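User: Hey, quick favor. My workstation is busy. Could you predict this chain's structure for me?
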Amino acid sequence: MNGNAAVATAVFAAFMVATVVLGLLALRGRGAGGGLAEWSVGGRSLGPVFIWVLMAGEGYTSFSYLGAAGWGYNYGAPVLYVVAYMSCGYAIGYVVGPMLWRYARQHGLVGITDMVAHRFGRPWLGAVVAVLATVFLLPYIQLQITGMGVVLSTVSYGAVSLNWAYFAAFAVTTAFVVVSGLRGSAWVSVLKDVLVIATLGFLALYVPLHYFDGYGPFLDRLVAQKSEWLTLPGHGGGDSGLGEAWFISTSFLNSLTVVIFPTTVAGYLGARNADALRRNALYLPAYNVLLFVPMLLGMAALFVVPGLAGAESNLALFKLVVDSLPAWAVGVIGVAAALSSIVPMAVFMLVIGTMWGRSVLSLTPRFAQRQKSAAQVVVVAAGGLALLLTYTAPNTLVRLSLISYEGMAQLLPMVLLALVWRRLTFRGAFSGLVVGVAAVCVLVFTGNDPVWGVNAGLVALAANLAVALAVTFAGRPDADPRPDAEVLASDEVEGKEADRLDAPV
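Assistant: No problem, here it is.
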């Protein structure tokens, strides 16, 4: 290991130890005996600052350092869909977040599987949704493991192999999330956000000045030589399928889906009160400004390291970093990128564990009274499975990741529409879900995404909703509809009243 590799790796290792310690310190003064609600949603007591850093951390993943730069390098303008859908999603979350928080608080629920099971009065339905959501979330864990592995291997100048880097990602995340749960993830998010803001702010100034003598010359050169990257459908033209219809449909679908994503809901339910979520929705879009940095740096890399192809284009940003910065700075930037993998991966693992502990394993008497322990075991199992498949069959989860967001969108009628419209029946919601998921799988795996330029997930959601409404209106109402409209219309469950109504879990 040469001098640069030793310095960068030492900086990286020191921060990883600090990450684990910080996650474990989150339990200080609270003991280790809390129940599932304390572990999975932070005891519903996180204030606006922790909710902000947690949800920003869950949304700012390794894609932001790798994929956003890679998309900027390969396509250009289409990558702006990320900023579009996240900003619109935060606006929708201003309304939806407090609504879901009130419903869950009223009935002592800790996730979307709980909500579905309670709304339709069928515990087994929560288990079905848990299994389905796991299929769509597991690829995200694998992608974060892969992202951190690539970052660690690159910033160590190749001294750390990808296999050891993958294991480090799994070990560091599991070490604190199993013990400290959502609260530990929120604490680590503080460290992650400080480093992300500092490193991206520095790179936003350094790269244009170092390589182009400022933003003016850089943008002039970009317009003159790479103008295709600045308009839709971006580089690749119509063959890329990333035109205006794709941009609008994908931004619309993802902005709706992100508000019922299990990891987003975990952030909602961890809030101390609904007002914290409203303030959070106002502040979160400011974080999106940071997304422009890796996008622009990806396009800057077109001139500095031309010719990157395939997966190598995802390293566009780090090629600039390793090429021009001292080893200690490379290590710090690598830590920021790695934490952008660890925080969302922790929340993904936590949510999968909660869903299974609460809605699947709890159906058996053996685990019904040990939901937290069961959830913690599932966290290790889910992370271990993603790690194993990363080593042995990486393409399996990569293919599943193609339908992750579009598949999760098919839960919108069952999770969201069902809570605001009492008339929606179980048969209608379930029939729509089956049709929507089947349509997504067929369209995506037959290479028909987008369909006529439109995101295949939105087409499947339209079919899902049509079937759900048709079956609902054609059949009889459910025998015992719950008075959800009254719950969602009331703000009285906030504050002390909410604490009284919060059921033990």
